[in-house]
Amino acid sequence: MKKLTSMVLTIGLGSALLLAGCGSTDSKVSDGVNKMLETTDELSKAIDSGDQAKVKEVGPTLEDQWSSFEDDVKKDNKDLYEKIEKYLDPTIAGSEAASLDKEALGTLNEQLTDALKELDKKTE
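User: That's the sequence. What structure does it adopt?
Assistant: Structure tokens below.
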């Protein structure tokens, strides 16, 4: 009887740890996506107002935010990972450009935002 109880407790504890680990990855991705969506919103406002200094300040922060959880996305959602990467790099480059191309950067930022929203829905 003791062996059976020990085995049930061990399995239960192992399952709980496994589930906790899965939840933390989803939570990490969800938190990261939410931060990036806040940043793309802030970037959009800066683009619309033509505030190049703010664009140059905000745009590059996307890379640091993305790098904190991109490996988890790459592992679990390869298609969305590639879609985000497709728009992320040009958005960052456009935000660092010498002159602000509002139309091009605005479009890239919208496409990045849409890809992030898609990932957000998938991780709910």
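The CA atoms of residues 56 and 96 lie 5 Å apart.
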